Amino acid sequence: MIGRLKGVLIHKAPPWLVVDVHGVGYELEAPMSTFYDLPALGAEVTLFIHYAQKEDAVSLYGFLSEQERRLFRDVQKVSGVGAKIALAVLSGASVAEFARLVQTSDVAALTRIPGIGKKIAERMVIELRDRAADLVAGGIPGAKSLPNDPLSEAITALQALGYKPADADRMAKKAVADGDDAATIIRKALQAALR
Fold this sequence. Notes:
The chain is elongated, with a radius of gyration of 20 Å. The chain has helices at 32-35, 66-75, 83-92, 95-103, 107-110, 118-137, 150-160, 165-175, 182-194; strands at residues 4-13, 16-21, 24-29, 44-53, 58-63. It has a five-stranded antiparallel sheet with strand order 3-2-1-4-5. Helix 4 packs across helix 6. The protein is an alpha+beta fold. The chain is built from nine helices and five strands.
């Protein structure tokens, strides 16, 4: 398996680039976040690589940072998301911005990324919230960890129970009172829904 390549950048035409490593040209796909910061042709470049093998093909994906590669891998763990959408995520938002959107359950903003519909955006929020917090906590420049807000935690928990984001938001905001922790908000929201 290939984890990193260091060589001379000899071709770049989004989303493809070719890196010459001692006479062997490795063709890989990269998100626009990587393309923006690539050096000029003929310059040396070091890329983190994601190696993907399918029945009929081997694909290489290149990233300038480990955080980008990690997000690329994490996004593909969401049901219905493949490499194409994962590349679109990194082309449409920085790692820190994506983490913020997931942590704040901003489904509307996520759906503005090409290839992401409402259902996939909702699944991303539910399935990636903890990982997004880890990415932010992992020292991404310019990113700040969001405080553990009981209302946000309750909304996420209600979504995990199957409520639509808008319904979960409405239920939690209606149930919350000053000083409530997440568990109290959830309990009150569920009791109100049963009435």
